[in-house]
Design brief:
The chain is of the alpha+beta class. The chain contains 16 helices and 13 strands. The chain has 2 domains: 204 residues, no CATH class; 198 residues, no CATH class. The strands form 3 sheets. The protein has a 6-stranded mixed barrel.
Length: 417
């Protein structure tokens, strides 16, 4: 294509500035929507994945083959120390968190004239040091609040039901791994909120050692949570874990298999991407088709003169196409700059969904998880590229018909109009 054709296409954008600005504005708004809203959705869904794979599910979880079906206290993994050491030698593994779980009855252990009311609870035995790391179940606790020997942290909902506060005693009654009844008193070191609904509503969090002693589970665990470098590499992580001899009789699941309801939730993002990309298509097609058609009818005389002096039809087509593509690219550039700027700024400040909706709720429950509504957008360059490709293609497609009409004009008839 000749440079003169590109120059003429650029010049023609200024013939009707109002119409050009309207088309550029529509395309720019569509591209802004694509970049910013998808950045917002990416931040929301990635935060949801952090909520799921961080504290409770992990990237891969290992447990007894029958554990998911029965959740019985005697369905445990043996040789925990050996297994843990073997997992930690794998280069793909970053963190190995053993857990002990069991359902119990809990009640206030404080002396009172009225009988204490018991309520269902759920013991979670943890490696306290590991759970203080980012994404752990005890991430929000200060050093002074971390439970020690004979101490527990309680979910806020359970603590409120039992009327138990930090510093008071909690009585726990359950069944050990051999089927015998057990009970003990623990001091409540902290009352915590959690994004994991089970922990928040029923959780009694104690050290792995205390849980093992209470339930007669020496060097045993019900589940091992394994984290790698990236949740997207969960399949490769599970393949590496499958080579660990100590896990031959166990079941290893990726987070996608362990929490399928969250997978369905995350897949919604693909639909959001598609919807907002469609918005850009529609904005570009409507704006450019209208501009190209009107411009073609207004310039029939000019096109007729060019054809009369020897211009080839393909050059007329080239002029109209160049004009339309330039119009689309200007709109994409403006929308991309605005969308990227807003996405990068809000990625630092965050956006409170709840406040925008006038609600005081700071999280939305989905399955067994509470997903925070304070979102940090995540800018993704691919959305700019998607918009650029979509608008370039749409611009050329929308201008084909007006360009073909202009190229098929009869020179003498066009010059008389």
């Amino acid at each position: 294509m000749k440079w003169s054709t590109i120059r003429m296409g650029w010049r023609n954008l200024g013939r009707n500035r109002k119409r050009t600005l309207l088309a550029v504005g529509a395309i720019g708004l569509g591209q802004f929507t694509l970049v910013f809203v998808n950045s917002l959705m990416a931040g929301f869904f990635l935060d949801a994945l952090d909520t799921v794979t961080g504290p409770m599910v992990g990237h891969v979880q290992i447990h007894h083959a029958d554990w998911r079906e029965e959740r019985a206290v005697d369905l445990y993994l043996e040789n925990l120390s050996e297994t843990r050491e073997a997992l930690q030698t794998l280069p793909e593994v970053e963190k190995v968190s053993p857990r002990i779980y069991t359902a119990v009855l809990a009640a206030s252990g404080e002396k009172s004239d009225t009988p204490a009311l018991a309520d269902p609870g759920f013991i979670v035995g943890l490696d306290m040091a590991l759970e203080r790391d980012r994404g752990g179940l005890l991430e929000t606790l200060s050093d002074e609040q971390v439970p020690g020997d004979g101490e527990v942290a309680m979910g806020r909902v359970l603590a409120n039901r039992l009327g138990v506060e930090a510093g008071e005693l909690l009585a726990v009654i359950g069944q050990d791994a051999d089927g015998f009844p057990v009970s003990d008193l623990f001091t409540v070191k902290a009352v915590i909120d959690s994004n994991v609904e089970l922990v928040r509503s029923m959780g009694i969090l104690m050290s792995l050692e205390n849980a093992g002693e209470l339930l007669v589970m020496p060097d045993l665990a019900h589940e091992i949570i394994v984290h790698g470098a990236d949740f997207r590499d969960a399949d490769a992580l599970r393949a590496a874990i499958a080579d660990v001899v100590a896990l031959d009789a166990a079941e290893a699941l990726t987070w996608r298999e362990a929490a399928p309801e969250i997978v369905r939730f995350i897949e919604m993002k693909d639909w959001f991407d598609f919807i907002f990309l469609a918005i850009v298509f529609v904005a570009a097609a409507a704006g450019i088709a209208n501009t190209a058609m009107m411009s073609t009818f207004e310039r029939r005389h000019e096109f007729g003169m060019l054809l009369a002096v020897g211009a080839r039809p393909r050059r007329i087509i080239g002029m109209v196409l160049v004009e339309s593509v330039l119009l689309g690219l200007i709109g994409v550039l403006i929308g991309s700059i605005a969308g990227t700027a807003v996405a990068l700024i809000t990625s630092q400040t965050g956006i409170n969904y709840a406040a925008l909706g006038g609600s005081e709720v700071d999280a939305v429950a989905y399955g067994n998880y509470s997903i925070p509504l304070f979102v940090y957008p995540r800018f993704e360059l691919r959305h700019v590229v998607y918009g650029l490709v979509a608008v370039t293609f749409t611009s050329a497609l929308a201008a084909l018909w007006p360009a073909a009409l202009a190229a098929r004009l009869e020179p003498m008839e066009a010059m008389r109009t």
